[in-house]
């Protein structure tokens, strides 16, 4: 092809023609709205396929209520302490389930600090042992159910009357407790927890051993429990080897709030 333009224009025209031919039929690259768009597209499927973790078990209504009052969940404060609330089952002295809406054990913060100390003291003496809680903070409504079961019977002596202010459980200032061995088995204490009778009294232990109703080992196990609990600030209850109060009833009524 002959060029009718001046030499400079003709040269420029030839250079542009060569440049266009070198591109051939290649398509322009796709523009990304974001430098990460392509990478995001590669991983979208894998991200969407990851399911959300299962939610934690919801607390019971009563547990949330105790939280709102400032009481402390024992398992959350010290997860080395075992929990087995006996009133969530019917195999207790009432023969009925009393905690229909409570699976967690709670204490007043002051009592919880003492319980944590008792656990430390126990483990200093027996590293494989652990405390186990059978009952702790108890609403007065449950106390009323207990009282209705025993009133008019000889067992009424073992249950605090709600009309007289209830007991230390109703302030979150008492705990029913025992000891597990290194295998997770409760130490023998002579009677089951919740046994309402003379065999559970701590004031009669010497004579109970003499009479063969309590072994010396069972008595020593009770003494160990009382030792660590008393050193931690709790007071034993003469009629129940498993029951310990953090303060007196008078102090509880003057300083602390009852759980309705």
Question: What features would you describe in this structure?
Answer:
This protein is an alpha+beta fold and 260 residues long. It has a single domain (61-255), classed as Muramoyl-pentapeptide Carboxypeptidase, domain 2 (2-Layer Sandwich). It contains nine helices and seven strands. It has helices at residues 7-23, 37-49, 61-69, 74-77, 109-125, 140-150, 205-210, 216-231, 249-255, and strands at residues 72-73, 82-83, 106-107, 130-135, 174-180, 235-237, 240-245. Strand 6 and strand 7 (240-245) form a beta hairpin. Helix 5 (109-125) crosses helix 8 (216-231). The longest helix has 17 residues, at 7-23.
Q: Main attributes?
A:
single chain; 260 residues; alpha+beta; Muramoyl-pentapeptide Carboxypeptidase, domain 2; two-stranded antiparallel ribbon; 9 helices; 38% helix
């Amino acid at each position: 092809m002959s060029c009718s333009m001046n030499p400079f224009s003709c040269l420029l025209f030839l250079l542009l023609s060569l440049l266009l031919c070198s591109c051939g039929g290649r398509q322009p690259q796709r523009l990304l709205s974001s430098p990460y768009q392509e990478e995001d597209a590669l991983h979208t499927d894998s991200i969407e396929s990851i399911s959300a973790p299962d939610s934690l078990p919801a607390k019971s209504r009563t547990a949330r209520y105790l939280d709102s009052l400032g009481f402390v969940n024992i398992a959350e404060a010290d997860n080395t302490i075992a929990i087995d609330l006996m009133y969530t089952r019917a195999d207790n002295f009432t023969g009925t389930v009393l905690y229909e809406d409570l699976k967690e054990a709670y204490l007043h913060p002051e009592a919880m600090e003492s319980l944590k100390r008792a656990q430390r003291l126990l483990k200093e003496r027996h590293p494989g042992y652990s405390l186990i809680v059978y009952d702790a903070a108890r609403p007065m409504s449950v106390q009323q159910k207990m009282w209705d079961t025993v009133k008019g019977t000889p067992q009424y002596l073992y249950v605090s009357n709600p009309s007289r202010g209830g007991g230390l459980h109703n302030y979150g200032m008492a705990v029913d407790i025992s000891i597990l061995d290194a295998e997770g088995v409760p130490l023998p204490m002579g009677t089951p927890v919740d046994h309402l009778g003379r065999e559970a009294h701590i004031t009669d232990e010497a004579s109970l051993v003499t009479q063969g109703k309590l072994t010396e080992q069972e008595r020593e196990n009770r003494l160990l429990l009382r030792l660590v609990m008393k050193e931690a600030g709790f007071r034993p209850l003469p009629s129940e080897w498993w029951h310990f109060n953090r303060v007196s009833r008078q102090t509880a009524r003057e300083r602390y709030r009852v759980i309705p």
